[in-house]
Specification:
Layout: H1 3-8, H2 17-44, H3 50-57, H4 61-88, H5 93-102, H6 105-126
Amino acid sequence: MSDDARSTRSGPGGISWIAWIYLLLAVAGGVLPWLANLDFIRSEGAAFDLGLFIRQANVNPAAQSLSRDLAIGATAVTIWMVRESRRLGMRGLGWVLLSCVTIAFAFGAPLFLHLRERRLLELARLSPEAPDTAK
């Protein structure tokens, strides 16, 4: 195993620091959007009205830009996540995709990256002679 691969596993539990950063981003990506969602629910009624939410997310050109940017970017990243999880033989993709639509894409994408880093480390441990893919 290369020195680079060993240096990336310097975090707690032998998991790379980048995997921990992805996990922290997932937590922030779950909490911060839902704080805004709760504000929306409080201001608009007792339930989450998806139609109203989408209308308000497109109420002006700035909001439209952000909504379209997220929709296109999230679609591309979701396609990549499915392909990458199959390529690496990852487990838990269903939970990741479910969390993208029930919690937030900002939660699901970093969670996927965390799980991917863990899988790359696992593959490197299983095959120490293989080329280093965990960089």
